[in-house]
Amino acid sequence: MGGQPRHKRYSCIIDEINKCHPSTILEVGTHRANTAIAMIKAAMQHKDDVYYYGFDLFDFLTEEMAIEEHHGKSFPNLVSAKFKLADYPHTLIMGNTQKTLPKFKPDRPIDFVFIDGGHSVETIQSDWNSIKQLMHKDTVVIFDDYYENTDETGCKSIVDSLSDEYSVEKISVPFSIASEKRELGRYEISLVKVSLK
Q1: For residue 98, what is the domain's CATH number?
Q2: Rounded to two decimals, what is the model's pTM?
């Protein structure tokens, strides 16, 4: 079931998985597990033993929180995600990642991370603070929501301030969506790869 990222701009994630052959994938923002399935299937082309960790608010997401986090998709659904992932080794963790990620102690090294949860700078900064503690020398981290024309939301201000110990590379052609703020016109969104040098 599944196997394709929810939007063609995410095909670069599969390209990166095909380069690094991860055994362990962590996703912040599992939503309904469509991208999760695509990532797992890509990784399983290279290794039999692939494990997935997924974090999301799932059923805890409220309308108010969706507005605060600039959530533009349908609401995540834990039952749907569990159903789609039933045939693959996985752990789903429901709750606010500002609380769940700092406590997370994985059973195995984390090889590949996709950060696409809350879109507020505060939430992404918190997610990154936790994720960078889990990185090893070969870990690949992909940030979604690098807004080319604003740093008020998304990961731009965080990625742009990374120290010289990290390698940073845009891996997608900017994708344009309508902005809620008229002065911005449209958001130009890229995906960015971060790894240790």
Answers
A1: 3.40.50.150
A2: 0.89
